UniProtKB/TrEMBL annotation:
Naturally occurring in which organism (per UniProt): Hortaea werneckii
Domain of life: Eukaryota
Name under which the protein is recorded: Uncharacterized protein
Pfam families reported for this sequence: Sulfotransfer_4
Length: 194
């Protein structure tokens, strides 16, 4: 999600169209075509997290040769806090309340509206109430749709070794530490300070 916010905020309308097609369409055909995905994903070689995870089935169907990396969560409860706001939305509320938006070039209201729509559609309007169920259901769908050779199940905290090995590569000498770009602070820093 931070990629949409930081690198391609101009694509938020395309994501609105994708969410409308999947979750709100009254038409029988709601799948996006391969060309639609090309326009939404642009120059991406890989995708992760929301909003792309909301379209896993469609992306797996549109890209049958793609490998899928499934991040195994050891403690799902820590990802979905009980009866609390979603951790990535909270910093935005605080920022808006104090009027300190360090990156005024971002279309914050449009992106915030997209985030709200995304979490409303995917989690039936309540991440705290439905997050664990949605995550487990999503996990089962991925495991059912992806063949053994195309699916890598790992915990990202394990670092580079399993990922590189599954791709048939040696760990690059300049690989450095495993990136931590989707943790709360890293996302807020990238979105608001970039």
């Amino acid at each position: 999600m931070s990629y949409v916010f930081t690198e391609r905020p101009q694509d938020s309308e395309l994501w609105f169209e994708a969410f409308d097609a999947k979750y709100r369409s009254k038409r029988s055909k709601t799948r996006l075509s391969c060309e639609d995905w090309e326009s939404v994903l642009g120059d991406c070689d890989a995708v992760s997290d929301l909003p792309c995870a909301a379209f896993s089935e469609e992306l797996i169907e549109a890209c049958p040769e793609a490998k899928v990396i499934f991040n195994r969560q050891k403690q799902l409860r820590s990802v979905v806090p009980e009866r609390d706001e979603y951790c990535l939305i909270r910093p935005f509320h605080v920022t808006f309340c104090f009027g300190q938006i360090p990156r005024p070039s971002l279309p914050i209201p449009k992106l915030f509206r997209m985030g709200k729509r995304m979490f409303g559609d995917v989690f039936d309007s309540s991440f705290p109430d439905n997050g664990i169920h949605v995550h487990r259901s999503h996990s089962e769908i991925i495991k059912r749709l992806v063949d053994g050779d195309r699916l890598l199940v790992l915990n990202v905290k394990e670092g580079w070794a399993l990922l590189y090995s599954s791709l048939g590569l040696e760990i690059a000498k300049d690989a450095g530490p495993f990136p931590r770009v989707v943790e709360d602070k890293a996302v807020v820093d990238r979105v608001l300070v970039k």
